């Protein structure tokens, strides 16, 4: 086992911190071929992307705070020709979107919603619901 001097260990530690800060401030998330939102904004909203591969977020999608979006998720509009003026989904706070889900069209998803893996959401979803399937259907709804 190789031993590091204190100076070398501190150097590696601070280099890692500086690189992390640089990445958070400079990396951008490309949404619909437009540079709309930085990863820093998602970080401040506490939106997390646990597996950030294959995620497509449309041009004017509104994401709430505390959302968690897994890999291969598409959130966008039905109108691909006029995407700048088309209606986009509005997603509430604390929404959990599992892998391979698709959320398309002029819909709104309430707060505290869980969208199951592979769900295709084409209609509004009320708050505190769990949806699964193709097309998505509500399987569980909490009443507070």
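^ Assign residues to that structure.
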């Amino acid at each position: 086992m190789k031993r590091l001097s204190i100076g070398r260990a501190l150097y590696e530690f601070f280099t890692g911190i500086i690189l992390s800060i640089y990445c958070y401030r400079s990396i951008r998330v490309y949404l619909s071929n437009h540079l709309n939102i930085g990863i820093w904004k998602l970080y401040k909203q506490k939106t997390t992307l646990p597996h950030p591969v294959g995620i497509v977020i449309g041009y004017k999608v509104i994401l709430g705070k505390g959302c968690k979006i897994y890999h291969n998720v598409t959130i966008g509009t039905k109108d691909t020709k006029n995407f700048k003026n088309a209606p986009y989904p509005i997603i509430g706070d604390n929404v959990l979107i599992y892998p391979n889900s698709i959320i398309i069209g002029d819909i709104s998803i309430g707060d505290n919603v869980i969208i199951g893996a592979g769900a295709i959401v084409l209609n509004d979803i009320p708050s505190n619901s769990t949806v699964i399937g193709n097309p998505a259907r509500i399987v569980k709804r909490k009443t507070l």
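The two ends are 56 Å apart (CA to CA).
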